[in-house]
Amino acid sequence: MLFLPQRAYLPIGSLRDTLCYPSTSAAFDDGELREVLDACGLSYFFGRLNEPANWALLLSPGKQQRLAFARASPASGLAVSREATSALDEASEGRLYRLLRKRLPNAALVSVGHRSTLAAFHEYQLDLAGGHHARASIAASGHHACDAVPAMK
What we know:
This protein is of the alpha/beta class. The chain has one domain (2-152): Rossmann fold (3-Layer(aba) Sandwich), CATH 3.40.50.300. It is built from five helices and seven strands; from the N terminus they run E-E-H-H-E-H-H-E-H-E-E-E. A hairpin with a 3-residue loop joins strand 6 (124-130) and strand 7 (134-141). It is globular and about 45 Å long. The two termini are 24 Å apart. Mean pLDDT is 83; it is low at 132-138 and 142-153.
């Protein structure tokens, strides 16, 4: 399972280790890391892979969210996103969700967020409106997602 929170955990260490977390950096070669950084709009960080730092303090919230999407592993059967693109513009959000669908073609994808733009990346949507200040939506797609609730389509 892959969990994409609004603020991802970024361990202190090299950018390579942070990018590969929770796996070890030995699990990926430079070509794979370059490709995923490029796909997430972070290609300019490739030259800093071996630089140790507290990346949570150095990277903007948007760059941290991009890095979290870069961690998506094809082994994930379920991806849960909670406001994981809130610091990004809509074009960047779309790019990352398309990448997620490409890298996790058979995974169920569940997103919790406030943006109506998330609906484009899901087959089902459930809107939860509470009071006049709160509005949240949950959308799910992928294989076997929401099979028990076809009336939601």
